[in-house]
Amino acid sequence: MGERGETEATGRVTIRDVAARAGVSVATVSRVLAGNYPTSAASRAKVLRAAKDLDYVANAHARALAGAGRKTIAVLLLDVVSSYYAAVAQGVEKEAAQHDRLTLVASTGADPARELALVQMMREQTAEAVVLVGGVVEDAAYRERMAQYAQSLAAAGSRLVLCGRPAPAPDVPAVVVEYDNEAGAHAVTSHLLGAGHRKIAMIGYQPGNTTGEDRVRGYLRALADHGVPRSDAVLHGVGFGQHNGDRAMRDLLDRCDGKPEFTAVFAGDDRVALAAVKVLHAYGLRVPEDISVVGYNDDPVAADMTPGLTTVHIPGEELGRTAVRLALGDTGRSQQRRQLLGTHIVIRDSVRPVTP
Amino acid sequence: MGERGETEATGRVTIRDVAARAGVSVATVSRVLAGNYPTSAASRAKVLRAAKDLDYVANAHARALAGAGRKTIAVLLLDVVSSYYAAVAQGVEKEAAQHDRLTLVASTGADPARELALVQMMREQTAEAVVLVGGVVEDAAYRERMAQYAQSLAAAGSRLVLCGRPAPAPDVPAVVVEYDNEAGAHAVTSHLLGAGHRKIAMIGYQPGNTTGEDRVRGYLRALADHGVPRSDAVLHGVGFGQHNGDRAMRDLLDRCDGKPEFTAVFAGDDRVALAAVKVLHAYGLRVPEDISVVGYNDDPVAADMTPGLTTVHIPGEELGRTAVRLALGDTGRSQQRRQLLGTHIVIRDSVRPVTP
DNA sequence: CTGAAAGCGCTTACAG
DNA sequence: CTGAAAGCGCTTACAG
């Protein structure tokens, strides 16, 4: 400000400008600014003064090329606004910031081609790690894709982090952070069973999607554990989300002319649960007086809706934090590392004991 | 894969490796990969083949240093999960992606020092634009800070974008994208007035914060327009958010022993509205039968809660998109550019005409 | 403690 | 159409 540097006329001011104004070499400027090398108090003062006068900031690209500077973490999600993804993104960003990393976000829109393109871009950026978030359909194509990502990232000194996604083969050099999806489903179903419910409908999950499948597995296991015959299970998953929840709930109610045999509904996620409650009301059924409802995710809506929804909490932000923590861990070995985070049930007001 | 390159033994494969394998010069590799220069079909084929064999991706830092490559947009928000910020972030990311830009996110936690540090980092990254999101207390310090950001960013060929924030002095080289905050408040208050409400309590905004002040202004103007004396206005803003909404609503109700004179509540944001409805219920007051309630933001909770909340829609994602669109516009002039986005009222079920 | 110089991996005039 | 070379802005051995 105020004083005008010789070279700052146009464009950026570089380390050369600072050196000139301070009357020292470029090397010295670099060293005092990095502060990782002995420098005399005199040059230190001159350099700092000059840098401030010129409002100098180093060029991160040049720094990176020279093998130094701040690193970057990339997070690739289906979208940015959904509460689960937003929570993971926030965890990634916060943990990254704590380790003095910057974070790059991009949304894939569930498009594998886009995902691949983004992984390549992140390789170009020499991201220190790229974390992939979100459930998927786990098929051979998926596994192969992940193996390739992991390989090419590793070759560039970066690493792949799978967050809430199934791990590829054990020899694939990836970091995996998951949450205990099945246990949560088991717990919340058991909660219903413990309240005396026997006939529990499970709706609102996407068949084939690993997240949905794991929840179904937990539900079925809980039923079995409580001696409910498999034939009493009612499964109707047409997809996640509010729209699908609405549809699934209506299907079930229409099938029985609005007089269901089930006394409780386990919704694949909280938005499905919200839709289910609304449909139930529309059919003249009260929640929880007539029908109990539980969800999954502990989305903000669960606490906001009426009645408050009993659901399973997923540690979204913690998943993100753990993802970068693990990614930043010893870069030495290239073997796979995994971590499983716990889930727990959050009890609110949408479940009532069945009265015989 | 498969075949092993000569130099790829350790670390990254560079353009030099590709050139060697293809039997051409580094310059030629650069040109065919960039595709912005005439090259023979023969070399093109060889280069592409070699690049593929070696799984080559260019180093973005080297590219950037050489004055080419993909640009980056930075977005700085209070936090990542709040629905408004998440919506803006999503808009920024999507629009940036459409223009082949990458997006860097960081949260400031409402800390000016952190904000400043982030702006510097983004300067280092040579971000093409840095978008600052969120309401603020507009004082001299704020204006000066923004002027400095704008200045130093401009000096580096980047630009400052203020999103949903007051513009600094007109000569400051910034881009400003706002939404019509006051008009929205005016509209929703008028909606209440049109339904016969005269005594309308406004709660849940933060005094001093520009966002809150603008909403109060719209409320007051609507009252005046409808001939309601200023003395009938009841203003009780102790802050945004659910917690403050709960507190404000209780305050008001306690003051009158649960028998309010007001027949309607205008909440400063939707989470405040949610809290207000819950408190009202707790006091035995029905919404909208006894008291009408409106909010602001059109947060997801507005559609989810019961009753559905009549509120003002803010075009969050569109704000983000517009921010980058404007930032990417002609880089020529360094004067300020502004855009005001509209808001509109969303009518749901939380308002009822007053019956005399 | 400090400077000159090489080098990071690209791109782009400049010749040919 | 193609190559040799300079240059982008730093950092870091290497001498001193």
From TrEMBL, chains A, B:
<keyword id="KW-0238">DNA-binding</keyword>
<dbReference type="GO" id="GO:0003700">
    <property type="term" value="F:DNA-binding transcription factor activity"/>
</dbReference>
<keyword id="KW-0805">Transcription regulation</keyword>
<dbReference type="InterPro" id="IPR046335">
    <property type="entry name" value="LacI/GalR-like_sensor"/>
</dbReference>
<protein>
    <submittedName>
        <fullName>LacI family DNA-binding transcriptional regulator</fullName>
    </submittedName>
</protein>
<dbReference type="GO" id="GO:0000976">
    <property type="term" value="F:transcription cis-regulatory region binding"/>
</dbReference>
<dbReference type="Pfam" id="PF00356">
    <property type="entry name" value="LacI"/>
</dbReference>
<dbReference type="InterPro" id="IPR000843">
    <property type="entry name" value="HTH_LacI"/>
</dbReference>
<feature type="domain" description="HTH lacI-type">
    <location>
        <begin position="13"/>
        <end position="67"/>
    </location>
</feature>
<dbReference type="InterPro" id="IPR028082">
    <property type="entry name" value="Peripla_BP_I"/>
</dbReference>
<keyword id="KW-0804">Transcription</keyword>
<dbReference type="Pfam" id="PF13377">
    <property type="entry name" value="Peripla_BP_3"/>
</dbReference>
<dbReference type="InterPro" id="IPR010982">
    <property type="entry name" value="Lambda_DNA-bd_dom_sf"/>
</dbReference>
